[in-house]
């Protein structure tokens, strides 16, 4: 049985990268997909490409750091499709920088996009998702479980998302809402992510590579998207890729000194 046939899926940050791949997977599974992103031109091009095979898509230009945009996005979604079954909080941005050069304003901007945007979208979507027994998928990172060097405000913003995901599970699982926190390592991209000169200044060359030099193989986005759909079907609480990273997280809780040594050793 195709569990996603005619379900309505909203993907933020859906015009490129992992968001686009997740949207494509849901389209292929028969879902009706809403794409949200700031860049209207790229957003429309993605929607046209994904609908070329007969997929049902709605593109809504949205800045998820603005409450008014988020409210409008949910209104458009429900008016157009009549329901909502899955919210994928994918919008976000990585960062680079040494911690003392990272300003409070840098942290604030990262928290707004990587964390508070998910709070805005989840609160606006919750009544509709509770009505359908739906899913919230929060795209975190390995950095949501263990910080690394030279990632500026990124880890702090993703740690916040991990805590929020647990709060949602504890309060809303019994009301029928499934919450999935996805924590992947570096995801392969067709176009390398660009960082500003200020972010890269004075950083070692290794920290400029994907994942800030984390020594794990880059993840195939299509494989990760498939795992996300499967985890939603099982209503799993977390998806960590690669799974062996769980050992680092467990050891870091038992011994922060050992955890810090391992992070330095493998990044």
Question: What brief labels describe this structure?
Answer:
single chain, 267 residues, alpha/beta, Rossmann fold, seven-stranded parallel sheet, 9 helices, 7 strands, globular
Describe the structure.
The chain has helices at residues 17-28, 40-51, 67-81, 104-132, 154-172, 197-200, 221-234, 245-254, 256-266; strands at residues 8-12, 32-37, 56-61, 86-89, 135-139, 178-184, 238-241. The protein is built from nine helices and seven strands; from the N terminus they run βαβαβαβαβαβααβαα. Strands 3-2-1-4-5-6-7 form a seven-stranded parallel sheet, sandwiched between helices. Helix 3 runs parallel beside helix 4 (104-132). The chain is of the alpha/beta class. The protein is globular. The relative contact order is 0.12. The protein has one domain: Rossmann fold (3-Layer(aba) Sandwich).
Brief overview:
This protein has helices at 17-28, 40-51, 67-81, 104-132, 154-172, 197-200, 221-234, 245-254, 256-266; strands at 8-12, 32-37, 56-61, 86-89, 135-139, 178-184, 238-241.
Secondary structure layout:
Layout: E1 8-12, H1 17-28, E2 32-37, H2 40-51, E3 56-61, H3 67-81, E4 86-89, H4 104-132, E5 135-139, H5 154-172, E6 178-184, H6 197-200, H7 221-234, E7 238-241, H8 245-254, H9 256-266
Parallel strand pairs: 1-2, 1-4, 2-3, 4-5, 5-6, 6-7
Chain-averaged pLDDT: 92
**Whole-number count of domains:** 1
CATH class assignment: Alpha Beta
Radius of gyration: 18 Å
Q: CATH superfamily name? A: NAD(P)-binding Rossmann-like Domain
**DSSP E strands, number:** 7
